[in-house]
Please model this.
Amino acid sequence: MNQNTINAYQRNAILTASPAELTLMLYDGAIKFCNIAIMAIEKKDMEKAHVNLKKAQAIISELRVTLDHKYPVWEDFDRVYDYIYRRLVEGNMSKEIDVIEDALKYIREMRDTWKEVMKKAAGAK
Model:
């Protein structure tokens, strides 16, 4: 598959995704960018680490601003997203892998929980 075909497939996946699937894609993207940043730090490529941590930060910011305030649990999610964001910023400034891995742990937990919610919602239909 050439790059244009892959890009078209990815664009179509985004355009046809449900809001729940888009949220899952955001979590997966944040995880991917954190992993790329960690590998870049290990290879001493600080610019690549910075760029990818900024992408992860942008995703967490997007997840945070799109929280639905009509549900009481939004405040809990907001606190978790705030913590993750601050750890990503700290990791970006210090380039300490353990700080980024801490944020990554929470992103993975949020993603895994979201997957379970999606499965349960699909089963309830």
User: Anything to note?
Assistant: The mean pLDDT is 92. Residues 60 and 88 are 9 Å apart (CA to CA). The first helix runs from residue 3 to 15.
